[in-house]
Amino acid sequence: MRCKITIRKTSSNPIHYDYQYGLASMLYHRLANANITLANELHSHQGFKFYTFSNLVIEDWIPNKYGLNFTKAHFFISSPDPEFIRSFTEGLLMEPEFFLGKGQKANLIIESAEILPQPEFSDTCKFTTLSPLYVKTMRKKGEKLAEFDLYPKDAKFYENLHTNLCSRYEEYYGHKVEQDFFDILDVMDVKAKRVSIDNSFRRCSMLKMKLEASPELVKFAYDAGLGEKNAMGFGCLGVVG
């Protein structure tokens, strides 16, 4: 299930380009306002978190050399759990004003929250990333294993996407996917990104892809996000065409 959140900026201060972590924190606190039990479960849960959100889609860019400036924008929150989306929406509307940015914070207000119709998925779909796609692996660095962020030029990127998606599906539904096939047929318009999350940088990618997979996996990727760190605003997908 997916919800479109429309926001309006009520101050002249621009938003810092690295707003993703601030937006993630705001969303968690709004969830706690509406459903503290669900928020506590999410906070204490050591496994995967089954939601994602998109970057801001800015509707009226205002030039500013210090950051992102606009009057109106929207973003999407997505999850396979309808109760989660309902609680999120209630929390946002209960306390619609929030702040984003570093230093001089920008004041924003949530104007509306709209539940979107669910797309119909076949075994072949075209997606675009609405937030950066993040994938990592462990590799030897000297005598120790260290985390390495992956880009689409690395074959391990696709293997780990598949493994991560199936693992999250199994944890959410409590059983393995019935038809486990997954293949990215084409990747286009790749743009490397570096995103600051809680004082560390994640190397990730914005891209378009043609994906062939079982419809249940495709739907889960759309609802829960693709790749890792989805609750931090990575891997939100939009349908193309």
TrEMBL record:
It comes from the Archaea. The record marks K49 as: Transition state stabilizer. The active site is at Y28, H43. One of its GO terms (molecular function) is hydrolase activity, acting on ester bonds. Residues 117-237 form the CRISPR associated protein Cas6 C-terminal domain. InterPro entries: Cas_Cas6_C, CRISPR-assoc_prot_Cas6, CRISPR-assoc_prot_Cas6_N_sf. One of its GO terms (biological process) is defense response to virus. Keywords: Antiviral defense, RNA-binding. Belongs to the CRISPR-associated protein Cas6/Cse3/CasE family. CRISPR (clustered regularly interspaced short palindromic repeat), is an adaptive immune system that provides protection against mobile genetic elements (viruses, transposable elements and conjugative plasmids). CRISPR clusters contain sequences complementary to antecedent mobile elements and target invading nucleic acids. CRISPR clusters are transcribed and processed into CRISPR RNA (crRNA). This is CRISPR-associated endoribonuclease.
